[in-house]
Amino acid sequence: MKKLALLLSLLLASFSNGQTEKKSLLWKISGNGLTKESYLFGTIHISCDASLPKKVLTALDKTEQLCLELDMDDPNMQLEMMSKMMMRDGVTIQSLMSAEDFKLVDDFFKKQSGFSLKMMNTVKPFALSAMLYPKMLDCPMQSYETELMKVAKAQNEETIGLETFSEQLAVFDAIPYQTQVNELIKTAKSDLDRDKKELQEMLDLYKTEDVEALIKYTEKSDNELTSGFMDELLNNRNSNWIERIEKIAKDKPTFFGVGAAHLGGQKGVIKLLQQKGYKVEAVF
């Protein structure tokens, strides 16, 4: 279930001081009353190599707790996930597709997972899409969040979350089921080729540490779940996080790890923190 939560997060990219013009995935947060520095790191939720750079390990040593998008150690997350995975009001996957498309997607899921779509007919479409992400990599899946949690555990530090699982799921509930299903059909029709190509392009961009290029790429994505709902997936959440980041960072120096697409842009976390008076500097 933790693995699924990580995958869902994936579905779920001129600045003051010129800071976001610099290419880095790691940013130091200071000033505005903070007694100690905190750090902000842009992750990518699935990868072939999630090894943590030296600068990230150094920042983890300097901080006293880890804060991810979700508290992955929350014992209630599995129960919460299971209770909110089904569509409401009797809607089914089959009712949202033509018979021809349902057969296409059903055959596709049998091929990719060994399961018939009929067995998951009431599961929310975005969750079905998230289940396919490991298939988009030509390697065993790794996660930066998992690696960050390993370090926090080794340092006997707590891992907390910026939002609850219910809040994250509500993001996808704001996207019409039909839109979610349409993307699932596109994935099946391309036999994952479209999605593999886009993921690889994202991974290549991630390696450049260019957070501005990442958000621009996200805005132009062929996947309407991403490009068509930027406010729901990124901007609104960024805005909601700022007050929480402030409170957490003032309590103790914290290492924040969130999806890299949340960092850049005029509505990104870096810019929003700068607007609140914090000094946010790229770490090289």
Automatic annotation (TrEMBL):
It is found in: Membrane. It holds the Pfam family TraB_PrgY_gumN. The keyword Signal applies. This is TraB/GumN family protein. Its cofactor is Mn(2+); Co(2+). It comes from Flavobacterium capsici. Keywords: Glycoprotein, Hydrolase, Membrane, Metal-binding, Metalloprotease, Protease, Signal, Transmembrane, Transmembrane helix. InterPro entries: TIKI1/2-like, TraB/PrgY/GumN_fam. It is a single-pass type I membrane protein. GO terms for molecular function: metal ion binding; metalloendopeptidase activity. The keyword Glycoprotein applies. GO terms for biological process: negative regulation of Wnt signaling pathway; proteolysis. GO terms for cellular component: membrane. PANTHER family: METALLOPROTEASE TIKI (PTHR31120), METALLOPROTEASE TIKI HOMOLOG (PTHR31120:SF6). Residues 1-18 form the signal peptide. It comes from the Bacteria. Transmembrane segments: none annotated.
